[in-house]
Every structure is written in structure tokens, then in C-alpha cells.
């Protein structure tokens, strides 16, 4: 999926779960930031083009270990032990990214290093992804307005 689609889906999930977490701001920021971490291993991603990820791309391939639940779980456990306040948001954001990529034709090896690949029918950057982007963008706007008007009234 494209950066923008990952973003609108992560924002949607983050907003939907806000009422179930003790610190909504930290949770929401964690969801959005963690949603982009799996693509640090790609030269073609927005963040992968940045200098700090060049080292990472030298040691990993795109949709390899960083696109696995094994890696997500490992990082989650470390965060849970040392930075508990962001750990749940991290897990949700990272998981949303993996789920979104698993419905693309390229798919992901969610149980890396095992060869098993989960993939779907969605072409990255295609018409259906554009439709999903539009739907989630509209849903985000509706949820944001709902939150704003609830706090006013």
C-alpha cells in the first residue's frame, strides 16, 4: 500500500480505539508513528529515502523481517518492558500496517523467516486502493468532527 493509504487507515483505527486507552494522545501518536516503521526497509518508501534508514536497507530487504509479526512482537515486548505507555499503540500501528500490506498482491511473509506468504488481490496504487483511501479519508473526517463536536457540546 501507499504511504497515504497506510496513514488514513492508521488514523481511523487510532481514533476508533481512543476511548479504550488511558492516555489517548500518546496512544494515537504511537499508532501513527509505528504504522510507518515497517517500510523503513524500502528505498522506495517516503521514510526509506531518508538518510537514517539507508543503513537499515543495506541489511534487510523490503517486506522481509520488518514485515513480520515475529519482529513486531519482539519490539512490542521490549517496549512493554521499558516504555509501556507507547507499547500498545506501537503494536496496533505496526499490526495495521502488516494487515494492510497483507491484502496487496505482493503480500507479506507475516511469519518470517518461514516462506509462507499472505497476499490478497489489491494492486498497490491501483483503483481499489484509491477507493479505500477515499473511504478511510471520509471516515477519518467524520470521526474527527464527531470528536470535536462532542467536546463542544
Short characterization:
By secondary structure, this protein is an all-alpha fold. Helix content is about 60%, strand content about 0%.
The domain count comes to: 1
Largest sheet: none
Structural class: mainly alpha
The proportion of residues in beta strands is under 5%
Number of helices: 6
Which radius of gyration do the C-alpha atoms yield?
16 Å
Note down, in words, how this protein is organized:
The chain has 153 residues and is mainly α. It has one domain (3-152). The protein has helices spanning 3-17, 24-34, 51-59, 69-82, 84-102, 127-152. Helix 1 crosses helix 5 and helix 1 (3-17) packs parallel to helix 6 (127-152). The protein starts with a helix and ends with a helix. The mean pLDDT is 87.
Q: What is the element layout, followed by pairings?
A:
Blueprint: H1 3-17, H2 24-34, H3 51-59, H4 69-82, H5 84-102, H6 127-152
Helix pairs in contact: 1-2, 1-5, 1-6, 2-5, 4-5
Keyphrases for this structure?
single chain, 153 residues, mainly alpha, 6 helices
Amino acid at each position: 500500500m501507499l504511504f497515504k493509504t497506510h496513514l488514513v487507515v492508521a488514523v481511523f483505527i487510532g481514533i476508533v480505539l481512543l476511548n479504550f486507552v488511558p492516555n489517548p494522545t500518546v496512544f494515537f501518536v504511537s499508532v501513527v508513528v509505528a504504522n510507518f516503521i515497517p517500510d523503513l526497509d524500502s528505498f522506495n518508501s517516503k521514510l526509506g529515502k531518508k538518510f537514517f534508514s539507508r543503513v537499515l536497507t543495506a541489511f534487510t530487504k523490503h517486506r522481509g523481517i520488518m514485515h513480520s509479526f515475529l519482529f513486531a512482537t519482539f519490539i512490542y515486548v521490549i517496549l512493554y518492558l521499558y516504555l509501556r505507555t507507547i507499547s500498545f499503540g506501537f503494536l496496533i500501528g505496526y499490526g495495521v500496517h502488516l494487515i494492510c500490506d497483507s491484502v496487496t498482491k505482493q503480500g507479506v511473509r507475516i511469519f518470517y523467516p518461514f516462506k509462507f506468504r499472505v497476499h490478497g488481490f489489491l494492486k498497490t496504487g491501483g483503483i481499489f486502493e484509491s477507493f479505500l483511501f477515499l473511504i478511510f479519508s471520509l471516515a477519518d473526517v467524520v470521526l474527527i468532527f464527531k470528536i470535536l463536536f462532542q467536546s463542544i457540546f
